[in-house]
Design goal:
This protein is an alpha/beta fold. The chain has 2 domains: about 5-75; about 90-180, Orthogonal Bundle (Arc Repressor Mutant, subunit A), CATH 1.10.10.10. The chain has helices spanning about 40-50, 60-75, 90-100, 110-115, 120-130, 155-165, 170-180; strands at about 5-15, 15-25, 30, 55, 105-110, 145. The strands form 2 sheets. It has a 4-stranded mixed beta sheet with strand order 3-2-1-4, sandwiched between helices. The protein has a two-stranded parallel ribbon with strand order 5-6. A hairpin with a 2-residue loop joins strand 1 (about 5-15) and strand 2 (about 15-25). Helix 4 (about 110-115) crosses helix 5 (about 120-130). This is methylated-DNA--[protein]-cysteine S-methyltransferase. It catalyses: a 4-O-methyl-thymidine in DNA + L-cysteinyl-[protein] = a thymidine in DNA + S-methyl-L-cysteinyl-[protein]; a 6-O-methyl-2'-deoxyguanosine in DNA + L-cysteinyl-[protein] = S-methyl-L-cysteinyl-[protein] + a 2'-deoxyguanosine in DNA. It is an enzyme of class 2 (transferase). Its EC number is 2.1.1.63.
Amino acid sequence: MSKEPMIYWTLFTRNDWSLYTAATSKGLCFIGSNHGSFEELEQWAKKSLPQYRLARDDEKLAPYTVELSEYIENGRSAFSVPLDLYGTEFQLAVWKALMDIPYGETYSYSDIAKMIQKPAAVRAVGAAIGKNPVLITVPCHRVIGKNGKLTGFRGGLEMKKQLLALEGGNIETLEYRLSRTGGIT
C-alpha cells in the first residue's frame, strides 16, 4: 500500500451541474467550476499540494457529494463536511469569513475586509477570494461589488448567477443593474 499522500476526486453531476470535487483524508479541498475540466483540478493540486497524488474514488467522496446534491436540489443552507484548506494565513482568514455569510445573502469585498479586521485590504481580500479552492462550500459567490454589481468569480459569472438564484437571491435585480451599468466592475 502506498504511503504517498492522496487527493481523492470524483466528478459530481446533478441536473445541469458537473463539478470536479476532491478531498484529502482530512476533508474537502477542492470544488471546481461548473463544467470545468479535470485540468483545473490537476493544476490546483500541482500548485497547492505537489507531494500528493490524485486518485479517483467516488466512494470516499460520497459524503461530500451527498451534501452538494442536497444544496443543489433541496436548498441545504450549511455544510457539515470537514474542510482541508491550504493557503496563506490571510487567505484562510478570508475563506473563514466567507463561511460566515448567511445563505441567500450577499456581502461586499469591503464587508469581508472589515470582518477580518483589515478594512484597508479590500483588494487583497478580492485576490484571496479569487484563490478560494472550494467553490460553493466556501461561498465566495455571495460576495458582490459594494455597488451591488456582480464581480469576478473563479467558476465564471454564469455559475455565480446560478448559485445566487439557487439561494433565492434576486438575480433579476442583479441582472438589471448589470444591464444599466454596462457590465462588471
